[in-house]
């Protein structure tokens, strides 16, 4: 809605400039014991600088809004999207932190990114998220290997001095194997009874 307002700013400005003459004040504030104060429409007039601030704020919020819409489906599963789109959001906000245009939003972007990162880091403990990628006909485990790395990336990181490097493809494989083993045990118990 704010992007549409920005696109229609000439019409919005024209309306606000003429609204007092057409409709009178937008509201009246009454504080007990004081005279009523009439608030004109012009109190809501945005300068060019204010419109540009609104546009920048909108651009920041649109990153999260776009991702929220990806999860708004009544008919299709969306859990498999969780890791890729959260990574996309984190990257978008990280990129904006480096752009002068968003300088006044850097603190908010950092805090937002750290909050999302906090929950993203908990995905490691949720096998369902990895399994949702693994069983998806398009993503499968190759997505994890390409985006997070496998044995080659682990070896490279160790060579670069990171002794805590992880082969994420192997972690994903073990997660899938553990789930399959669990299902086999559960199924054999069901059929024997």
TrEMBL record:
SUPFAM superfamilies according to UniProt: Ribonuclease H-like (SSF53098)
Stored InterPro entries: RNaseH-like_sf (IPR012337)
Domain of life: Eukaryota
Name this polypeptide is given: hAT-like transposase RNase-H fold domain-containing protein
């Amino acid at each position: 809605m704010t992007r549409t307002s920005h696109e229609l700013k000439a019409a919005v400005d024209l309306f606000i400039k003429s609204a007092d003459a057409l409709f009178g004040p937008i509201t009246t504030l009454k504080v007990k014991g004081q005279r009523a104060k009439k608030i004109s429409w012009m109190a809501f007039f945005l300068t060019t600088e204010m419109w540009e601030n609104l546009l920048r704020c909108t651009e920041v919020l649109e990153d999260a809004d776009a991702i929220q819409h990806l999860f708004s489906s009544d008919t299709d599963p969306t859990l498999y999207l969780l890791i890729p789109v959260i990574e996309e959001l984190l990257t978008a906000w990280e990129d904006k932190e480096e752009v002068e245009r968003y300088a006044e939003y850097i603190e908010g972007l950092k805090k937002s990114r750290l909050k999302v990162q906090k929950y993203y880091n908990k995905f490691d403990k949720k096998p369902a998220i990895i399994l949702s990628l693994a069983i998806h006909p398009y993503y499968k485990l190759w997505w994890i290997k390409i985006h997070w790395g496998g044995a080659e990336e682990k070896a490279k990181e160790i060579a670069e001095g990171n002794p805590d490097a992880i082969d994420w493809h192997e972690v994903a494989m073990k997660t899938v194997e553990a789930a399959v083993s669990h299902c086999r045990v559960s199924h054999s118990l069901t059929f024997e009874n």
